[in-house]
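Methods: example folding runs. The two proteins below were folded one after another, and each record is reproduced exactly as written to the output file, sequence line first and structure-token line second.
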Amino acid sequence: MATGGLAACSGTSGEKKFKIGVLQLTEHEALDQANKGFVQALDDSGISYTIDQQNAQNDQSACQTIAQKLVNDGDDLILAIATPAAQAVAGATTEIPIVGTAITDFAASGLVASNDAPGGNVTGTSDLTPVDDQFDLLIQLLPDAKKVGVLYCTAESNSDVQVQMAEEAAAKRSLEVTRYSVSSSNEIQQVVESMVGKVDACYAPTDNTIAAGMTTVAMVANENKLPVICGEKGMVDNGGLATYGIDYNKLGYKAGEMAVKILKGESKPADMPIETLDASECTLSTNEETAKAIGVDLSVIQ
């Protein structure tokens, strides 16, 4: 079920007041932080705007409905948070500028002609995570690990990209990878249970379905002492073991800065390369409670 509504405007009287629509795929920490960062960038810019915040609650049909509503409302710009949201909005308009965020690969998801030269009405910020660094972290924490299960949702093209990257990273470290996929959140518990005894660790990329269901993942994994290396901090906070990942608030802020340039007429999406956060902006996050529960020594990375 979709949720949302108009929020207060910002800016001074007498200026042009921009109408901005937001379609967020679902509620979880990473996407929520990207949303907050975006709004902060708008506020810091001083532009006058109203914002219509809509959340599709991870419902694909709701994404389509909300996307059409935002287009029909005649918004000046639409922010799409996560790949399915961006795909829905991009399918609804080729005229209104769209800024996406929390999307791994815009080009691979069919949103732009290329990440360096988008060429249409879509641009934004990529949450491509440092998968190699995350596997280095796995090796540091779990030096005896030989088999890794990669947990993801088949409905997300973002996850396909990350799973392939995980397989490449694992191969370089002589780790054996097995894919464990779900088609919806209802399958998470059963699939994680099926990993127990078959792998030494689980890797969960920045998959929205898995992130939103991370408490379920952690419930099963931690009870069975199965370490979970995650794609982002929110997943660690909800029971994962550790990650080395990006700051979604900063990612959203960068998207907001791009949106302001578009609204002010300083640039067009077609000419704005997809932006990413620098590796130096990635941070280490660990969950001490989880580490104690599964018997992992975090001091090896301190």
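Second run, written to the same file directly after the first:
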Amino acid sequence: MSDIDKYYDVIIVGAGPAGIGVSILLQKLDINHIILEKTSIGDSFRKWPKETRFISPSFTGNFFKMPDLNAITPATSPAFTLLTEHPTGEDYVEYLENLAKYYDLPIKTEVYVDAIRKKADSFVLNTTNGAYKSTYAIWAAGEYQYPNKRAFEGAHLCTHYSEIDSFSDLDGDEHIVIGAYESGFDAMVNLIRARKIVTLLDDSDYLNLVKSDSSYSLAPFTRDRIEYVADLFDYYTETKVSSVAFVNATYIVKTANGHTFTSPQKPINCTGFASSLTLVKEAFEFKNNYPLLNDFDESTKTKNLFLVGPQVKHRNALFCFIYKYRQRFAIVAEKIAKEIKVPHKTIEKALQEYKNNNFYLDNLSCCDDECVC
């Protein structure tokens, strides 16, 4: 019998940290499942520019119930495995591959899911490898491979951040960077390190915006790097780009506040990502561009379809970093385990480690607090 002829309890779409993280817990619960990955394990991280590093630091504190911020299981640490504090994308792929091998995860690579259909009480996933069927589906496809190329008129004329292999390989000495959140400042810093001249266009004022939630404010790692190049780039705040045109071998960038910038090189688009949810948008309800989920991260529109990863949001709590969304793996896994009648003792044994190590967040009211200082 081939794998596409089998009926699974759960199908997970995506073999990045979210998909692998929740799969490990399903494996501990002895739940019949499979991960479908369109390319290879952690492929989004493999596509990062070679200079890009994790902004969240890795540090081994497991003995003290303080797991590595970039770990996706309580008992592992990228810092211990990779011996670095801020891993590269390639580094992190190594960590994910090690986990997949150690836990013997059921991953099927090079299987592209192009549609999810709900038929009665089952899901049918149409793929390049045929149809897969399950009772539950978990969407864990991530964001990086789905860049936002519609943020302004003429965005297609730019080089999106996700299309850069290395900043040192970019032609020309002068570059305009559009968008100034994490990817924009990362591009700026790495371009300057490659001895380029940079103009950074910020539609807000992120350099001076400080909040206690790192989902809405620049990371300290980013600010430290900016400090070293503070006098080496032109920075325009409240400068929202309205259009980019290519005229007479020159890129012309116009802004909503009347500025015009020109460059012989393609501007670099750092306005973010559209997310993989564009592929399954009919299965979710949305509010302010985020999917509506119940308390178990299940779609409010499609029963038994769950979301894990950086698109998860509850009220003001945005779970866009690994150390945040890993706290919801156990919530999803527990919900499914109870519904398919996994023995209570098995559930408690699997979840206790997660509860003891801050990998189990079921009270979302705690996410509204601000730091005192």
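Comment on the second run: The chain has a mean pLDDT of 94.
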